[in-house]
C-alpha cells in the first residue's frame, strides 16, 4: 500500500537551532515527492519538488533532499516565522497524491 | 495573479441537504483535486481530475461527487451530507507537465449537523 510517514509529529526549536524533518515513503513508481508549508487555517503552500534520489533543492533556510526511501527537510538557523506545519506528499503512478500527516514546527525566540 | 478560489468559505448545513462547493483556477492547469483535512488524519485526497471530462477517485471518495466539464472549474458535490463529512476542504490545481507547481485554495469549512 502506498504510504507516507512524517516524523516527528511536533518539533520545538529555539531560534537559530538547526534541525531536520523526515518523510519516509513507500510507493510503487514514485513520480515526485513534494514539500509544503501550511499555516493555521490556510491552504498548503508549495515549497519543493524532488524527482530522483540524490536530488537537492534549497530555498532560504530550507533544504530538501531525497533518497530512495525518504526525504529530509533541513532547517538551518530557523526563525520564529518558520513556525508552521510542514507537509510531505508523493505522487503515485496514475496521478494520485498521498500526503503525510505533517510535522508541526514551533520556533521560539 | 495566480489563484484558486473556493466558495463558500464557511458552510453550516443539515444532514441530507444537497450542497455544492465551487472551485475555480485561473492558471490553465490540467490537474485539479479536492482534499479534506481532519485533525490527526492529515490531508486526504477525495477526487482528482487530470483533464477535462476525466476524474478519478482518491483515498476517500465515498459520499462525494465531482465533475470537470471545463478546465477552470471543478465543483465538489455532496448529494446527501452526513455529520462525518464535517471537515475542512481544500481544492487545488496542479501544473505537472515540466515544472511541478501546485496551488491550494483558501479552504471551505463545512459543518453538517
Topology:
The complex is a heterodimer of chains A (109) and B (113).
Chain A: E1 3-7, E2 10-14, E3 19-26, E4 32-38, E5 45-50, E6 56-59, E7 62-66, E8 70-75, E9 84-91, E10 97-99, E11 103-108
Chain B: E1 4-7, E2 10-13, E3 19-25, E4 31-38, E5 42-51, E6 54-57, E7 65-66, E8 76-78, E9 87-95, E10 101-104, E11 108-112
Parallel strand pairs in B: 2-11
Antiparallel strand pairs in B: 1-3, 3-8, 4-5, 4-9, 5-6, 7-8, 9-10, 9-11
Provide a short characterization of the protein structure:
The complex is a heterodimer of chains A (109) and B (113). Chain A is an all-beta fold and 109 residues long.
Q: Would you write up a description of this structure?
A:
The complex is a heterodimer of chains A (109) and B (113). With 109 residues, chain A is mainly β. Chain A has no helices and eleven strands. Chain A has strands spanning 3-7, 10-14, 19-26, 32-38, 45-50, 56-59, 62-66, 70-75, 84-91, 97-99, 103-108. In chain A, strand 4 (32-38) and strand 5 form a beta hairpin. With 113 residues, chain B is mainly β. In chain B, 0% of the residues lie in helices and 53% in strands. Chain B contains no helices and eleven strands. Chain B has strands at 4-7, 10-13, 19-25, 31-38, 42-51, 54-57, 65-66, 76-78, 87-95, 101-104, 108-112. In chain B, a hairpin with a 2-residue loop joins strand 5 (42-51) and strand 6 (54-57). The N and C termini of chain B lie far apart (36 Å). Chains A and B meet through strand 4, strand 5, strand 9 and strand 10 of A and strand 4, strand 5 and strand 10 of B.
Helix/strand class of chain B: mainly beta
Q: Please state roughly what percent of the residues of chain B sit in beta strands, choosing from under 5%, 5-15%, 15-25%, 25-35%, 35-45% or over 45%.
A: over 45%
Binned, the helix content of chain B reads: under 10%
Low-confidence stretches of chain A: none
How many strand units of chain A?
11
Task: Characterize the biggest β-sheet of chain B.
Answer: 7 strands, mixed
Strand content of chain A: over 45%
What is the tally of helical segments of chain B?
A: 0
What's the overall average pLDDT of chain B, rounded?
Answer: 93
